[in-house]
Design goal:
Elements (H helix, E strand, L loop, with lengths): L9 H27 L14 H17 L6 H12 L1
Helix pairs in contact: 1-3
Amino acid sequence: MQPYMSHLDPHQAHFNHYLGWTCTLVECAFSHLKGRWCSLTAYLKFAEDNLPQVIIAASVLHNICKAWGEQFHEAWVKEVQHVEDA
């Protein structure tokens, strides 16, 4: 989705604010998934049609880890960012 550009009315400005907030939230969520499941940052051999199922499976497993008290290390996110920036 694209934000509204120039001469925004209040509704468009409100939309842009929440669009930016939502994009940040989604980026953070995917960073956590890629941090916990490093294989998501590599080339995976599966059909593109299966991508939603892979993301759902990683999300469910991540939530199970959280529910069972498995620690998440922010260093994992930094490592993913370092690999992606290279």
